[in-house]
From TrEMBL:
<keyword id="KW-0276">Fatty acid metabolism</keyword>
<comment type="similarity">
    <text>Belongs to the thiolase-like superfamily. FabH family.</text>
</comment>
<dbReference type="InterPro" id="IPR013751">
    <property type="entry name" value="ACP_syn_III_N"/>
</dbReference>
<keyword id="KW-0444">Lipid biosynthesis</keyword>
<dbReference type="Pfam" id="PF08545">
    <property type="entry name" value="ACP_syn_III"/>
</dbReference>
<comment type="function">
    <text>Catalyzes the condensation reaction of fatty acid synthesis by the addition to an acyl acceptor of two carbons from malonyl-ACP. KAS III catalyzes the first condensation reaction which initiates fatty acid synthesis and may therefore play a role in governing the total rate of fatty acid production. Possesses both acetoacetyl-ACP synthase and acetyl transacylase activities.</text>
</comment>
<dbReference type="InterPro" id="IPR013747">
    <property type="entry name" value="ACP_syn_III_C"/>
</dbReference>
<keyword id="KW-0443">Lipid metabolism</keyword>
<protein>
    <recommendedName>
        <fullName>beta-ketoacyl-[acyl-carrier-protein] synthase III</fullName>
        <ecNumber>2.3.1.180</ecNumber>
    </recommendedName>
</protein>
<keyword id="KW-0808">Transferase</keyword>
<feature type="domain" description="Beta-ketoacyl-[acyl-carrier-protein] synthase III C-terminal">
    <location>
        <begin position="314"/>
        <end position="403"/>
    </location>
</feature>
<dbReference type="InterPro" id="IPR004655">
    <property type="entry name" value="FabH"/>
</dbReference>
<feature type="domain" description="Beta-ketoacyl-[acyl-carrier-protein] synthase III N-terminal">
    <location>
        <begin position="174"/>
        <end position="253"/>
    </location>
</feature>
<dbReference type="GO" id="GO:0004315">
    <property type="term" value="F:3-oxoacyl-[acyl-carrier-protein] synthase activity"/>
</dbReference>
<keyword id="KW-0275">Fatty acid biosynthesis</keyword>
<comment type="pathway">
    <text>Lipid metabolism; fatty acid biosynthesis.</text>
</comment>
<dbReference type="InterPro" id="IPR016039">
    <property type="entry name" value="Thiolase-like"/>
</dbReference>
Length: 404
């Protein structure tokens, strides 16, 4: 049914025919030993520990039922830190200028976490707004996907968001790490959970605070990034109403050399005895290096791969370019956005861009821009959006979706 590069289909309607589920799946894994012979059976029931400990076994708690679902985008929200840093502010700390930054990137301001701000709190705020728009209670959320490369806990931030939202039924919550492609991967993952796993309401949050990993003395990178969070609620619906028409996902580890923030061992940390140092044990404590980027290579990669990916997703959906109401790319650089739009022949008035105000907010950039476009009335129910993320990994991917 689904594979890494999308639901192959020459047209939306034939894609729907092909999407008849073929493998039995429970939350806990593959169900059917006879593999492809059966339909998808899932549990829509979520049991908290208190319920399970009251006697019912996990398997008893699950009510098998046929799943033949679509999914649609029904809510969005966003949040950004209050501290605004302009290009002129940056010109006071590195050798740059408003003119250089705005001409080369389109960025004029960015928001940066400061003081007691937390990325998790931004993610919670964005998620709450998405739930309000969707008119879904936190208790009815059954999956939280936090797409971030900068969690505030090494083990992931999603469970903290689940807790802060007050989802009392202990829904599954986990992080997805794929840099600036994270939100698109989260969207596709959410759709797979709904279509194949029986989930009903999935929160997909994109949130990053790359300002914490920027070398603020490096004018080549520090001008680009900002912090923010955005969220959407993806909801199960009848397959006829399905709003994720196709997707196309890729990664290329070879390109990691062009963009990374790798782990490094702290130098001043031989506290735990020295007798093991010959063996290199115990290891020194580690942290992450600041972002290293070959901007020109990343630029070339984006301009080459993103149009191909969107074109591929359109072909899988059986849709012409002219069916795109909005082109919504990861907000990295206005010149990248313009070049991709030109290659796809999408006119400027159908391109969504807000990076002048926020810079590159990594996994947050797409849901943040979507939220602004929906709330300003630009994007309306029924509009078709071609969206694409790209960045470190290298990773890139696109999805053709319908809003509402
Ligand atoms: N201010 C003034 N001059 C600068 C600055 C600056 N902030 N930064 C670089 N320069 C100088 C350079 O030193 C160089 O000077 P030189 O010619 O004397 O050597 C000159 O400007 C040109 O530098 P380039 O790096 O070649 O500039 P370029 O036109 O490539 O623009 C930029 C740089 C904006 C970073 C661009 O390459 C870019 O946007 N690349 C894509 C980055 C991106 O999209 N990343 C997304 C992924 S992020 C993620 O996944 C986490």
């Amino acid at each position: 049914m689904a594979n890494a590069s999308g639901f192959f289909s020459p047209s939306v309607s034939s894609w729907r025919r092909r999407m008849q589920p073929q493998i039995g799946i429970y939350r806990s894994g593959l169900l059917s030993p006879d593999g492809f012979s059966s339909r998808v059976f899932c549990s829509s029931t979520i049991q908290g520990p208190e319920k399970l400990s009251s006697g019912a076994s996990p398997s008893e708690s699950r009510v098998p039922r046929l799943v033949n679902k679509g999914c649609k985008l029904v809510g969005c929200g966003s949040a950004a830190p209050t501290l605004k840093v302009s290009n002129d502010d940056l010109a006071k700390i590195v050798d740059t200028s408003d003119e250089w930054i705005s001409v080369r990137t389109g960025i004029r301001n960015r928001r940066v976490l400061s003081g007691k701000d937390s990325l998790t709190a931004l993610a919670v705020e964005a998620a709450r707004k998405a739930l309000e728009m969707a008119r879904v209670e936190p208790d009815d959320v059954d999956l939280v996907l936090m797409c971030t490369s900068t969690p505030e806990d090494l083990f992931g931030s999603a469970p903290q968001i689940q807790k802060a939202l007050g989802c009392k039924r202990n829904p599954l919550a986990y992080d997805i790490t794929a840099a600036c492609s994270g939100f698109v991967l989260g969207l596709v993952s959410a759709a797979c959970h709904i279509r194949g796993g029986g989930f009903q309401n999935v929160l997909v949050i994109g949130a990053d605070s790359l300002s914490r990993y920027v070398d603020w003395t490096d004018r080549g990178t520090c001008i680009l990034f900002g912090d923010a969070a955005g969220a959407v609620l993806l909801q199960a619906c009848d397959s006829e109403e399905d709003g994720l028409f196709s997707f196309d996902l890729h990664s290329d580890g070879d390109g990691q050399r062009h963009l990374n923030a790798t782990v490094k061992q702290n130098e001043m940390n031989d506290v735990v005895g020295s007798n093991g140092s010959v063996l290199g044990f115990p290891p020194r404590q580690s942290s992450y290096s600041c972002i290293q980027m070959n901007g020109k290579e990343v630029f070339r990669f984006a301009v080459r791969c993103v149009p191909q990916s969107i074109q591929s997703a359109l072909e899988k959906a059986g849709l012409p370019r002219s069916s795109i109401d909005w082109l919504l790319l990861h907000q990295a650089n206005q010149r990248i956005i313009d070049a991709v739009a030109t290659r796809l022949e999408v006119p400027p008035e159908r391109v969504i861009s807000n990076l002048a105000n926020y810079g590159n907010t990594s996994a947050a950039s797409i849901p943040l821009a979507l939220d602004e476009a929906v709330r300003s009335g630009k994007v309306k129910a029924g509009h078709t959006i071609a969206t694409a993320g790209f960045g470190a990994g290298l990773t890139w991917g696109s999805a053709i979706v319908r809003w509402g």
